[in-house]
């Protein structure tokens, strides 16, 4: 009997391997099929033009809280906030889009920019980058060159008429070269100008006539000037040797920079020389102004040569027309008033920047930028980053003092701008003004003393002062306020800003106090509170640990206002309401939110009224 022929060993290996591979493939297909949804979940939001299939794989209930509380998926869909290809049915197509994808999935900065499509207020809860970016747009005066919805032409830059009476030509040359060495905290960007362009600009600026200056006063006394600067609290707004506020210009070199005649006239009648300045109209006497000028000439000067000593101090009047054209071309008129030059913007409008696709924009370097906020941030930090050879270079100036995070926040704010955004029903508008400055005599006083440069009122104004004017009429006694406006005293020891002494007369203070008391009362604070037992109030004050924040008779901590003299300062109705209702009485304040029992609040208020 002959043996049956056997198959070669290699063939056994091939057959068995094929069986294993087939089994593995079948298993993968079964697993994939089991994970595939049984049906496509499609969400349509007609008003937004959204067709999303994201919920085929994602359960909206798994979305991190609390966003869906007021962003219901039925109303917004998914891609409105997250981006991505809503119609896609695979993860790769929906999520892993490249820079040329029409609707790429948003990264963190783009998601914040998406918030800006609906939310129009400067501050948007839950979107710190967007909020900070919008604040920077105002602070840096971006609307001076670009049309940006919600931003008017800035009014913070100085008027330039009569500049030749104020500073030397050498100082202007140095400033146009680089403002930072002359005023490190200044917000004006640095323009790339040639020597010839600076010569022309100086010639134009020095051709502008300004208001006539007052007759030169007699020489002042430096010692009296030092005392006047301290008493007027100039450093609340101005920095000197790296100390002081930043609302006004740095005065470290003011004695060398400012011409004495102009400086004195400005202090005597500030708004005649600079009607749009943020500085209050102090209306100093010529003698006090001369004293301050004398003090500045001794103390606010450099130890060595002035930084502009090497700059040309001559002016060629024949270049004025060229300088005027350059002033307009470089966008200077967007921030500064100068003669009859119209206030115009020189750069492209940004009202639809958020619809630009990064793939259509020029790139810098080998590594492309994939998201719009980052692209804008690069442009802000390095204006020439995307210049193309053979094409005119960008005229955008360089901003100093901006960090990479600042630039990205600006990118987020600008990437939120779209002409045809969401319908009106989806818009969250900026809060309406809840109070306004009246016309007439009171309005003129508020304007003259520039109250809203430091104080908030009805959603407008500055934030230098810790507490706004809304509700102030219910917080303080009118007699105390009249005296305070004439001679401000320090109440909040923990705040560096001190209200300047502006020379407000008793009649002016009375008119302002009457307006505040009658028009700026808080309807949430009931009148006629019955005070309790001051002895029990003193015990409760100690037991509640109020001295952790407040000072009384020299004891306590200066985290909150001092309470000495509160009996003549604070309205008892306000004190009872604050203690009983907590920090809700002063939104944004630092008083604890929780309230005390009514009886205990009345007791403590009675003790405070006795101080």
How would you characterize the overall build of this protein?
This protein is mainly α and 611 residues long. It has 5 domains: 16-105, no CATH class; 141-149 and 349-424, no CATH class; 163-334, Cytochrome Bc1 Complex, Chain D, domain 2; 440-519, Cytochrome Bc1 Complex, Chain D, domain 2, CATH 1.10.760.10; 534-609, Cytochrome c-like domain (Cytochrome Bc1 Complex, Chain D, domain 2, Orthogonal Bundle). The protein is 38% helix and 3% strand. It is built from 25 helices and 8 strands. It has helices at 9-35, 73-76, 79-82, 91-95, 108-115, 128-139, 163-166, 169-177, 195-205, 222-232, 254-257, 260-268, 270-273, 286-299, 320-329, 372-381, 404-415, 440-448, 451-454, 478-486, 506-519, 534-543, 566-569, 572-581, 598-609; strands at residues 43-45, 50-52, 239-240, 243-244, 456-457, 460-461, 551-552, 555-556. It has a two-stranded antiparallel sheet. A two-stranded antiparallel ribbon has the order 3-4. Strands 5-6 form a two-stranded antiparallel ribbon. The mean pLDDT is 88.
Give me the secondary-structure topology.
Blueprint: H1 9-35, E1 43-45, E2 50-52, H2 73-76, H3 79-82, H4 91-95, H5 108-115, H6 128-139, H7 163-166, H8 169-177, H9 195-205, H10 222-232, E3 239-240, E4 243-244, H11 254-257, H12 260-268, H13 270-273, H14 286-299, H15 320-329, H16 372-381, H17 404-415, H18 440-448, H19 451-454, E5 456-457, E6 460-461, H20 478-486, H21 506-519, H22 534-543, E7 551-552, E8 555-556, H23 566-569, H24 572-581, H25 598-609
Antiparallel strand pairs: 1-2, 3-4, 5-6, 7-8
């Amino acid at each position: 009997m002959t043996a049956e022929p056997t198959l070669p060993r290699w063939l056994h290996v091939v057959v068995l391997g094929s069986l294993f591979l087939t089994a593995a493939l079948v298993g993968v297909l079964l697993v994939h099929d089991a994970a595939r949804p049984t049906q496509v979940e499609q969400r349509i939001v007609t008003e937004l033009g959204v067709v999303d299939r994201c919920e085929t794989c994602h359960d909206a209930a798994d979305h991190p809280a609390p966003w869906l509380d007021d962003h219901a998926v039925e109303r917004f869909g998914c891609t409105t906030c997250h981006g991505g290809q809503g119609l896609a049915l695979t993860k790769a197509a929906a999520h892993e889009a490249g820079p040329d994808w029409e609707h790429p999935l948003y990264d963190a900065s783009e998601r914040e920019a998406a918030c800006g499509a609906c939310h129009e207020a400067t501050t948007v809860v839950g979107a710190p980058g967007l909020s900070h970016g919008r604040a920077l747009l105002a602070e840096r005066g971006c609307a001076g060159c670009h049309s940006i919805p919600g931003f008017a032409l800035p009014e913070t830059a100085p008027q330039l008429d009569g500049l030749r009476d104020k500073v030397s030509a050498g100082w202007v040359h140095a400033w146009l070269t680089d403002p930072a060495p002359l005023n490190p905290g200044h917000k004006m960007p640095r323009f790339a100008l040639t020597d010839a362009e600076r010569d022309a600009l100086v010639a134009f600026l020095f051709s502008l006539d300004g208001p006539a200056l007052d007759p030169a006063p007699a020489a002042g006394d430096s010692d009296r000037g030092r005392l006047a600067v301290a008493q007027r609290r100039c450093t609340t707004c101005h920095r000197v040797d790296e100390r002081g506020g930043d609302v006004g210009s740095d005065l470290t070199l003011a004695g060398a920079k400012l011409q004495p005649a102009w400086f004195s006239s400005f202090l005597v009648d500030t708004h005649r020389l600079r009607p749009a300045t943020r500085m209050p109209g102090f209306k100093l006497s010529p003698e006090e102004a001369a004293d301050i000028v004398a003090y500045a000439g001794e103390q606010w000067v450099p130890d060595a040569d002035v930084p502009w000593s090497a700059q040309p101090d001559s002016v060629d009047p024949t270049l004025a027309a060229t300088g005027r054209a350059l002033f307009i071309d470089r966008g200077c008129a967007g921030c500064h008033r100068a003669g009859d030059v119209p206030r115009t913007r020189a750069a492209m409008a940004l009202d639809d920047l958020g619809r630009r696709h990064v793939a259509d924009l020029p790139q810098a370097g080998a590594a492309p930028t994939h998201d719009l906020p980052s692209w804008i941030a690069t442009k802000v930090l390095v204006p020439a980053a995307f210049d193309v050879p053979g094409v005119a270079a960008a005229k955008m100036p360089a901003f100093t003092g901006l960090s990479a995070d600042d630039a990205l926040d600006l990118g987020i704010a600008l990437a939120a701008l779209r002409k045809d955004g969401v319908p009106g029903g989806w818009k969250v508008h900026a809060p309406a003004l809840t109070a306004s400055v009246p016309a007439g005599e009171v309005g003129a006083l508020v304007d003259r003393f520039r109250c809203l440069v430091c104080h908030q009122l009805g959603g407008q104004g500055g934030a230098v002062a810790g507490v706004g004017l809304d509700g102030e009429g219910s917080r303080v006694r009118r007699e105390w306020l009249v005296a305070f406006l004439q001679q401000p005293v320090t109440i909040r020891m923990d705040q560096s800003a001190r209200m300047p002494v502006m020379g407000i007369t008793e009649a002016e203070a009375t008119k302002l106090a009457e307006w505040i008391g009658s028009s700026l009362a808080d309807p949430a604070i009931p009148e006629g509170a019955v005070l309790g037992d001051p002895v029990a109030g003193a015990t409760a004050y100690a037991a509640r640990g109020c001295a952790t924040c407040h000072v009384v008779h020299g004891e306590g901590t200066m985290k909150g206002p001092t309470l000495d003299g509160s009996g003549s300062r604070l309205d008892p109705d306000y004190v009872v309401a604050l203690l009983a209702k907590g920090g809700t009485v002063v939104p944004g304040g630092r008083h604890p939110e929780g309230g005390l029992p009514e009886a205990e609040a009345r007791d403590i208020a009675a003790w405070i009224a006795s101080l």
